Amino acid sequence: MDTIVSLFLIFIGAALINNFVLHYFVGICPFIGVSRRVDLAFGMGCAVTFVIGIAATLSWTLTFYILRPEAPLSAWLWNSMGADPTTVVDLSILSYIAYIFVIASSVQFVEMYVKKFFPSLHRSFGVFLPLISTNCAILFACLEIMKNLQGGDQLWGLHHALALSLGGGVGFTIAIVIMAGLREELELCDVPKALKGPGIALLVAGILAMAFMGFTGVDRGVADAIRTLTQH
Amino acid sequence: MDNTLITILLSAGILLVIAVLMALILGWANIAFHVPTDPKVAAVNEILPGANCGGCGFVGCSEYAEAVANGKAAATLCGPGGQDAANRIAETLGLDLGQTWPFKAVVHCSAKREQRLKQTPYFGEQSCAAANLVPGIQGCVYGCLGYGDCQDVCEYGAIDMVDGLAIIDVDKCTGCRACEKACPRGIITMIPFKTEEVLVVTCSNKDKGVLVKDVCTVGCIGCSACTKPADGLIEMVNDLPVVNYDKDSSGIDLHKSIEKCPRESLMFIGLHKDKKKAQGEPERIEANFATTVDQTEWRG
């Protein structure tokens, strides 16, 4: 039961409370660039959710077996190369470059796959899929997963990583769709010339971020409610 | 071995293994998921300007390229690419184009702000689409509203609003049809420029002459005086002269038609104005900021 509750909390936390876009301000480029129309924004959100899931799976595997401190594979290599066994092997310095490798090539792979087997989906994703390979929201999800594999009692499993990435993807979709809806209305407003386009969009994003601060503390309340329910 | 050296070796080795692994997977995927594409589509796509303006009626340049290469669309639909693109596409695909002309946008209204009757004071949204919803915004229910929706959508800077009337610079116009779609009153159309100067009816008012005189000082009153010297090139439809651009206009002196018009509803619109202007261009006047700054209109 505790596992399910913690997974749920990670999901809600990534989707609403610590929304990637509106709390951490990562993934701002597609958030501003592809939020002119609701349908395109939703497509972008789906594409990001899809890629973030794949990237999280791959980077969790990579981190758990190779990059984290005391990772089994690198520890075995470390010892077999005759290093000092009292020192803990830690290849976390490689995380950034390894994640960029993994994200870029998995996006390429997914694009080829989709182009071959789902041509209509590929046409509607269009230029978004390659754009996602440089999306910082995805790198952020990978780094967040790495942070929770650094040590301590509770190392994240693959299911935690997936909950975080799917929550992040859903949160990104919510944020970009709300933003697209607002910007469709903004088209009809008399905006001062100096603020037209991305300027007013960033101001609106800031106000939206303040609104999302209202979700702070929801996770603890939900957790308490679930615990009380399960006790009875 | 030293710990530092091992760390460096281990890092380099692991990165190398990841890189080689990814390269192998991507290389395999490139072959396994290869989608055969028609080389003709790629060739046509190369010729198109890539503006994705949608003027041809397709979503983007690549969709149009596919349609052209499969013979589902004509090779002449690309406005921004113009004659040059059409010729090169025809050459690539081995098509016979026949004779084609550049299509440019023209405004079928010539009434400046003070030449048309205003009825209701309007303080709403400064756009034609919104103003057009207000009954009685303007005496003439057919003519230009002058809020410049067409100017806003023109990506080539070809439209200027002069005294509340849209004026199109046909040299800059690429024929992308964006303004035609934006105009809520439908008074912008595309016409073929077969000659350097083309006769254009600059009025869209379909009412009887008496009613037109009430609302506009330059609009067409439907007298049909212009049709006689034009030798069948101009016909009256709904009290408006309509120029038949499919007919051959050579040998007909269209200046006579313009002279016969008691109003200002017919005029020549011509290409290459710049050349004519260069012959007698007035000297540039430097801006006097002392007078201009204070009159800046702030719409914050």
Low-confidence stretches of chain B: 273-282
Estimated radius of gyration of chain B: 28 Å
The largest β sheet of chain B comes out as: 2 strands, antiparallel
| Residues in helices of chain B, as a percent range | 25-40%
- Measure the end-to-end span of chain B: 71 Å
Number of strands of chain B: 8
What is the percentage of strand-forming residues of chain A? under 5%
User: What gap, in angstroms, lies between the N and C termini of chain A?
Assistant: 14 Å
**Side-by-side strand order of the widest sheet of chain B:** 1-4
**Could you estimate the helical fraction of the residues of chain A in percent?**
over 70%
What is the chain-wise order of helices and strands of chain A?
HHHHHHHHHHH
Describe this structure in words.
The complex is a heterodimer of chains A (232) and B (300). Chain A contains eleven helices and no strands. Chain A has 232 residues and is mainly alpha-helical. The two termini of chain A are 14 Å apart. The model of chain A has no long low-confidence stretch (mean pLDDT 86). Chain B contains eleven helices and eight strands. Chain B is of the alpha+beta class and 300 residues long. The relative contact order of chain B is 0.10. Mean pLDDT of chain B is 79; it is low at 273-282. Classes of the chains: A mainly alpha (232), B alpha+beta (300). The A-B interface holds A 62, 66, 74, 77-78, 81-84, 87, 89, 91, 93-94, 97-98, 101-102, 105, 108-109, 112-113, 115-117, 119, 188, 190, 192-193 and B 1, 3, 6-7, 9-11, 14-15, 18-19, 22, 25-26, 29-30, 33-35, 125-126, 299-300.
Outline of the structure:
Chain A is mainly alpha-helical and 232 residues long. Chain A has eleven helices and no strands.
